[in-house]
Design brief:
The protein has 121 residues and is an all-alpha fold. It has one domain. The chain has four helices and no strands.
């Protein structure tokens, strides 16, 4: 079970980083800002995946609504972190829009990958 969780969490985090860090470049994020995007995702992605797994397995929460509800605090917390860094340096120009778009694209990509895998099964 531990190996399965590490693999699942690792794949999820890896794909999120592969999508969100380069996408942040389109928002004008450079150097230290990319590292902040990386760190923010290292903390939020495993946490939200663990909460999702617990809600699904212990409470039988429905998958899609649970995912969407969990994305709300993720976007808000990432926005607040990006906004805090924006005040100290010119790292992030539109922190809420960036947090929303990065999460929407990585979430949507994850949905498409999941649908594709189910179609192949």
């Amino acid at each position: 079970m531990t190996a399965y969780l590490l693999e699942t969490f690792g794949i999820s985090l890896g794909l999120t980083l592969l999508i969100e860090v380069p996408l942040a470049l389109l928002f004008g994020v450079r150097k230290e800002g990319l590292f902040v995007v990386f760190l923010v995702n290292v903390f939020t992605n495993p946490a939200v995946n663990l909460i999702y797994l617990l809600l699904r397995s212990l409470c039988g929460a429905p998958a899609f609504p649970t995912q969407l509800l969990l994305e709300i605090p993720v976007v808000l917390s990432e926005w607040l972190i990006y906004r805090a860094f924006m005040k100290h340096a010119d790292m992030f120009r539109r922190p809420f829009l960036m947090a929303f778009v990065l999460n929407a694209v990585s979430y949507g990509t994850g949905l498409l990958i999941t649908l594709f895998i189910k179609m192949l099964s």
